[in-house]
Queue: 2 jobs
Job 1
Amino acid sequence: MRIVIALGGNALGNTLTEQMTAVKHTASAIVDLIEQGHEVIVSHGNGPQVGMIHHAVNELTHVVEQDFPVIPLSVCVAMSQSYIGYDLQNAIREELLNRSIVKPCATVITQVIVDPNDPAFQNPSKPIGRFMSEQEAKKLAKEKGYQVMEDAGRGWRRVVASPKPLDIVEIDTVRSLFQAGQVVIAGGGGGIPVISQGNHLKGTSAVIDKDFCSCLMAELVNADLLIILTAVEKCAINFGKPNQKWLDNITVNQAKEYCKQGHFATGSMLPKVQAAIKFAESKKDRKSLITLLEKAKDGIDGKTGTIIYNS
Ligand code: ADP
Ligand code: MG
């Protein structure tokens, strides 16, 4: 099978040191699938990493004497793709060599086209970066023109737009690499959001949802399976309630019904289920799997995870 694997936060950890350990387990799970003969394209999230980079470059603007230019968010996403890609491709390479599998692995810095008229730009909803006091947040908002918001009782944060991905600029490069038998890491952090202006691509201040970008990539490379690896083995209805029920195999229509009933939390499980539905209904015989990193192999064998398929 041709598989797009979307790695969640727990596959990468929250800090540089956590990431170096986490990628070893992640690489092992990925190489298990390669060893079974699957073609694998890897994508990943970047929540904590882009937050850290954004924080670091912001601090820079405070500490240096002269007016240090603001580093755009699109550049922060690019930085996160490269350093996560560095750790991942290194770990995958090592795991392949340990198993005597000869296969190059590389990261493609990936730009993703978004629509400048996407309503998400009018309604920034994705919190990024560090937590601040209300006063500090409002000061920053005034100085830099940022939008800020209170984030779930934890403090104030900058919020950015999360527009829908329309196209992947480097998709032909991704195709060439996997067609040559190489392992590709692409679409990291949802991709670098860009707006098309004639021949020029202009970075935009947004963060694309990695689950939606992975879905688009799976469609564009004509994958058979989209695997979304996260912190739970299965999706549930009535999640966290006494009548919670884990979901095994569900049809696209069932999944849509559960979305409508509000079973999946916005910003965490909902985008995954929506991405899983979109991919499963995009073409005959495509399906999606949501499960834990360590259960990817069992999930493909139908032993666990939530599978969403088009009946
Ligand atoms: P990732 O970093 O993999 O994108 P998220 O934290 O964004 O992870 O989303 C996964 C989380 O969604 C799970 O750890 C779980 O706590 C939460 N979640 C919300 N609703 C559900 C649900 N209905 N079923 C399972 N998990 C859910
Ligand atoms: Mg998430």
Note: The two ends are 20 Å apart (CA to CA).
Job 2
Amino acid sequence: MLVMKFGGSSVADRTQIEKVQEIVRGRLPRAPVVVCSAHKGITNMLIAAGKAAAAGQQDAEREVIERQQAIARGCGCPDGLLAPFFQELTDLLRGVRLVRELSPRSLDYISSFGERMSVRVIAHFFEQNGLAARPFDVWDLGFITDNRFGAARPLPGYEGRMAEAFARLVPPGVTPIVTGFVGKTEAGEVTTVGRNGSDLTATLVAAALGAQEAEIWSDTDGVMSADPHLVPGARNIPSMSFDEAAELAYFGSRVLHPETLIPAMRKDIPVRVLNTNRPEHPGTVITREPGRRERTVTSIAYKESQSILTVRSEHMFAHSGFLARLFEATTRRGLVVDMVTTSEVSVSISASDTDLLRAVASDIEHLGSCRIDTRKTILAVVGHHLPTQAGAAAHITSAVADAGVNIEMLSYSSGSINVSMVIDDRDVDIAVRTLHTKLFGS
Ligand code: ASP
Ligand code: MG
């Protein structure tokens, strides 16, 4: 059994969905389970509609319904197919407008319509074109989550429930087309796993069903050595380890949702990243042991718009428990810290959430002087051989120096496959391009 996930651009319109159908057809002997995102742009439009309704706008749903309707008609679907969803969405947004309030719970409910509608359009199109398929809301297949709206995760034991539901509900010979991104609590409230989360749904489903492989189909030739929009000479990476892919995803490589690799790692399921527009390209295969590779560095990733808090105190290390108190404050505020560097007199931490970082700073003023710097980028260079290659870190930092870019924080711990540094947002382009030329050739 094979899980195949198609992202928003892969199912953007009829032309794309035709490509998807051919790809799925070619894999029918492997009994594919297809997980889909909403059509490209629909989730953004749904969220915008929710916000507009909360601000009092009438007919906030019009634009998104028109776009969805056009895609469905383009795929030959009768208007009746999505009519119940359009009605439900209209009612829901009316409610939001009346109460002028958009809770995380309502926002998840609104966002869920994209996937719920896309799977119906895709399954209908497949059926019309001779490929037996049936749409499913993933919650009907046992994907029951906690109630952390916007970041929900399946409840322990979901795997057994899913295996049982698939066996019971999916007829043999029929390809299930399953919603990514969404879920439901035990009480029946709609949740989502978070933006761009369909990748994660796919590997969670693959783990539950004991799939032989999970394929993530998008619009690049697998994972690249750097963002191809920034570095035109970026090249495909044929294979990498779960660890490398997880670091890259976490530090901003846009190809995979950061948590995608965790369920796959746990069950040792290879993940293949492929291009819907070039299905013959082998893409990238991500496994536990990716075999021997020559290059020290696998890929460069970056995460922009980060903020840094620096706490400075003369007697920082004379007073024991300084770091404990700092991290007590970040924990209390629920702040996710990405990078930490320390010296005799100061500690710096980086995070994405500037507001929470400011709140932490005000909590710990008594510990020392606090400074916040915004508009910073974490630049991460990831590679399997980094920990054992003499001079690797020097090579990387000197490339950044050659670009005339100042490194403000640097983190490279023992055994780590990731050298990460903080630079200014303004320097990203030049730093990444220079690094790429130095590490991969031009
Ligand atoms: N449709 C959702 C989003 O745009 C989930 C996904 O595309 O993976 O965030
Ligand atoms: Mg997506």
Note: The pocket of magnesium ion (ligand 2) is lined by residues 7-8, 37, 196 (CB under 6 Å).
